[in-house]
Amino acid sequence: MNRFARLATRVLAVPLGLVCLEPAGEAAGALPECWPPATRPDQAVLECCRRVAEDGRPLFLSRAGDGTAAFSFAGVPLVGSSGELLGVLAVMDPGLRLWTEDEVQDLSDLAAAYSAQARMRARTEIGRQAREAAEEESSRVHELLNRSELLLRASEDLADTRGLDDVRQRVGDLVSGDLKPARVDLILVRQGTLHRVPSPVDGDAPLGGVPGQFALASHWPVSRAVRENRMVVVVDAHADPDAPGGTVAGPGFDALNLHTAACLPLRGTHSVLGALVLGWDTPHEIGLDERAVLTTLAGYTAQAVERALHLDDRVTAASQLQRAMLTDLPDTPGLELAALYRPAARDDMVGGDWYDAYPLPRAPAGVAGALALTVGDITGHDMRAAALMGQVRSMLRQADHDHPGQGPEQALSALERACRRLNLPASGTAVHAHIHPAADGHWHLKWSNAGHPAPLLLTPDGRVENLTAHDVLLHHALPPGPRTCGTRSLPPGSTLLLYTDGLVEERGTDIDENVERLVRELATAPPGIRLHALLRSLLDTIGPQEAQDDTVLFAVRVPAP
Q1: Torsion of CA 106, 110, 113, 118, to 10 degrees
Q2: Burial classification of residue 108, based on how many CB atoms lie within 10 Å of its CB (0-12 exposed, 13-18 middle, 19 or more buried)
Q3: Which is nearest to 266 in space by CA: 293, 288, 297?
Q4: Average per-residue pLDDT in the chain?
Q5: Contact predicate 514/505, CB 8 Å
Q6: Are 192 and 216 in contact (CB under 8 A)?
């Protein structure tokens, strides 16, 4: 504007030029751009500019007398591309002069040039604004897409979590890439108290100076979020307590140098389960879009937490059932016994594997001190398999007591007949053995194998014998047939190892090679190693890293003199 006012003064040889984008008097505080700078036209000139703006036509005049100072004025309207008025380009001479046709044309040409440049600037500004709006919209759409992808990943990743630790880990992984919080905490209600689920990274570090557990009725924002079942946003500890949408944190919040936190209630089917807490170490504005995302994320998290708590309760009940059915090994003079059970790492973390040892009833011509030994595997690794296993275990014990003096093969046959009569759908494998003391410190072993992995016998000279003889497995659909029985003498220094297939079966490996490894490990075990330590070593060395099946190891040793 100043440049065109200067050009007008030079071309028309006048002392004052001005451009008015808004006619004087129509906009409060609107001032024209003048040349020379810092000059101000008098009211008469501004009145002439207003006339040009109102009429939309050029005005060239000379005025003298009538109690006012003489002056000459020339002004032309500045017109936009659609004919709209952009303003006025004008010059003023304090004396009287006659405006020539060339001067009229020159001022009109300058006005046209100014209008063209103004239109070009307007188009440029419109383009800039359009680009900025497009970039802003693109950024917003990109952010919305990221948020949508976050929620999609959350619905997928949190749908198959198996425990609270898994939920805690996956939520942290989900939000770290998009929302970028400095801290994520999972707080759960347990017996009226809030407990923090430890992070796999920082363990039991407290949240903002708060201990790992605190009262639900406390003043902390996370407690309020759970009690009031609503999102509570925590602003910087030194912020204005009257700030809209914010709640000043209680003491200790700034111990982690967090500026902003969102406490999101986890709404379960019947009650609020706890809260998900996200904290940022820089000021973080949580708008309406992000609130919606956080609320949805909290919903997916609540579903995963509720499922994990249900699974934990089920696993706890199943584990208690399993422990109740595992035998306390009897104290048998002249023998050492040890057993080890590891549950599967999936399903109910229990299964149908079992071991058992109990004294045999004395037969009329029997020998005192006889013992029954069993390792079995009922198909499945869930509570149903564990329940079937308990029934089979009790029925096999009863079969031994109902057939005193008979061999282990007779007890297995009696078990099969009972399962068919009772319509008990039990299937699986088992090794059932009877062992009793013989002369010279030896023990006499009789066993019957129903399709089970072969027992291993470590002899005093360090050799390992694979007792491979076996019959068909146990199955409720198979008619009971005659079962065979093997015998061995166990001299002092012998160790008998019974185990289930969870020890040697692993996806992607050869079971026979794993059995050979087990044989080598057993043969090279230190002679004086305690039985329980031997079983733990075999499980750690041979067993799969992730237990897909439950596993039993049961060892019987005839101590050397």
Answers
A1: -160
A2: middle
A3: 297
A4: 82
A5: yes
A6: yes
Please state whether 209 falls in left (phi above 0), alpha (psi between -120 and 50) or beta. Answer: left
Q: How many CB atoms lie within 10 A of CB 66?
A: 6
Q: Running DSSP on this structure, what letter comes out for residue 99? A: P
Tokens of 265: 């209630």
Beta-bridge partners for 194: 189, 214
pLDDT in tens, 40-51: 888 888 889 999
Helix (H) or strand (E) holding 276: strand 272-280
Counting Cβ atoms within 10 Å, is residue 288 exposed (0-12), middle (13-18) or buried (19+)?
exposed
Instruction: Provide, rounded to the nearest whole percent, the portion of the chain with pLDDT above 70.
Output: 84
In terms of C-beta density within 10 A (0-12 exposed, 13-18 middle, 19 or more buried), how is residue 442 classed? middle
The token pair at 241 is 């307590």
Identify the pLDDT of residue 520: 94
For 474, residues 6+ apart whose C-beta sits below 8 A from its C-beta are: 392, 412, 415, 416, 419, 426, 427, 428, 429, 430, 450, 451
- CA 88/CA 52 separation, integer angstroms: 7
Among the ranges given (62-76, 150-164, 182-196), the one the predictor scored with the smallest mean pLDDT:
150-164
CA–CA separation, 176 vs 181, rounded Å? 6
Peptide bond into 364 cis (omega under 30): no
**Confidence class of residue 255 from pLDDT cuts 50, 70 and 90?**
low
Tens-digit pLDDT profile for residues 389-416:
889 999 999 999 998 889 999 999 999 9
Contact between 277 and 246 (Cβ < 8 Å): no
Secondary structure string (H, E, C) spanning 325-339: HCCCCCCCCCCEEEE
Whether the per-residue pLDDT at 147 is higher than 70: the answer is no
Number of Cβ atoms within 10 Å of the Cβ of 48: 23
Give residue-wise pLDDT tens across range 335-351: 999 999 888 765 555 67
540, 521 in Cβ contact below 8 A? Answer: no
Would you call 432 helix, strand, or coil by DSSP? Answer: strand
